[in-house]
Specification:
The protein is α+β, with helices and mostly antiparallel strands. The chain contains three helices and 16 strands. Strands 1-2-3-4-5-6-7-8-9-10-11-12-13-14-15-16 form a 16-stranded antiparallel beta sheet.
Length: 319
């Protein structure tokens, strides 16, 4: 990241000014609005106070860089926009010539960082957007490095976990848009070094992802990833602990799609089953009526038979 500090500003004592045109106070100091050309070719146009750049102004560097914003005692201080010679740009807060506070940096390759700054470094909470892939890092920063709890968001999945020196470390999880999560852990492997490289202090670290199990979606808040509850034995069979990949493939947990979970079955909304007990009661009543008719018919038949028997008995007596 390129930058030009206040050391580029020439001391503007009266004898050092190449040219000045503008307001002065009673003591002859630059005061009010003015325009100056420095001996090194830089130019400034804006507000002065007691001989120093103070207030709103525009400083143009000979190499093509330009700052438009607030000054305080010859330093960039307050809100301002700095356009660098390589095409990058910073827009935000400044304190004593340094990016400090909240601001947006537009990089030459199209990447952007939006968030907090401290003494010229990305520090605090911020979002870095990768223009080439569309991926986005949202989380903590320390002295210009990705560090702390964060999310690394990709096109159809995201990683949630902890970062140290720009690399994921420890427990975390991949959240897939299909509705499931893959829990696991990142470990760091030191890259093999030659004899000459061993003397160097910097060590190349390769993060390795070790998948453990798959669960449905759970709430995540920035912090240390907690181990998931062991209630998915099927996931352990599908995703063995020995399978180590940097970017887990989302095809394996397709069976875990919870689409039907959120939608109740169609049978639950139809009232057909509620009417069936009434139909059964009606059939029982009809059956009871038929039984009563049968009993009446049986009793009449028995009376007729008895009357016939009595008539036959009387006939036999007469004979």
């Amino acid at each position: 990241m390129s930058d030009l500090g206040s050391e580029e500003f020439e001391e503007e004592a009266e004898n050092d000014l190449g040219e000045y045109e503008g307001d002065r106070n009673a003591a002859g100091e630059r005061h009010g609005h003015g325009r100056a050309r420095l001996p090194n070719g830089d130019t400034y146009e804006g507000e002065y106070a007691n001989g120093l750049r103070n207030g709103l102004g525009t400083y143009r560097f000979k190499n093509g860089a330009r700052y438009i914003g607030e000054f305080s005692e010859n330093k960039k201080h307050g809100q301002g926009i700095f356009m660098y010679p390589d095409g990058s740009k910073y827009e935000g807060e400044w304190v004593a010539d340094q990016r400090h506070g909240n601001g947006v940096y537009y990089y030459m390759n199209g990447d952007t960082y939006t968030g907090e700054w401290l003494s010229h470094y990305r520090h605090g909470q911020g979002t870095y957007l990768y223009a080439e892939t569309g991926s986005k890092y949202v989380g903590g920063w320390v002295n210009g490095q990705q560090e702390g709890a964060a999310e690394l968001i990709h096109l159809n999945h995201r990683y949630q976990g902890k970062f140290v020196n720009g690399n994921p470390i420890g427990r975390g999880k991949y959240v897939f848009d299909i509705g499931c999560e893959q829990h696991g852990e990142y470990t760091h492997l030191d890259q093999d070094k030659g004899e000459e490289e061993e003397e160097e202090e910097s060590v190349s670290i390769i993060p390795k992802w070790k998948a453990k199990n798959i669960t449905t979606l759970t709430l995540w808040t920035p912090g240390v990833e907690k181990p998931p509850p062991p209630e998915e034995p099927l996931a352990a069979e599908e995703m063995p602990a020995t399978a180590v990949t940097e970017e887990p493939i989302a095809e394996e947990p397709v069976a875990e799609e919870p689409v039907e979970v959120g939608e109740p079955p169609a049978e639950a909304t139809e009232p057909i089953e509620d009417l069936s007990p009434l139909k059964e009661g009606e059939e029982e009543e009809e059956g009871g009526k038929e039984d009563q008719v049968d009993l009446v018919n049986t009793s009449l038949e028995e009376k007729e038979e008895e009357s016939k028997e009595s008539e036959e008995a009387e006939t036999n007596k007469e004979e």
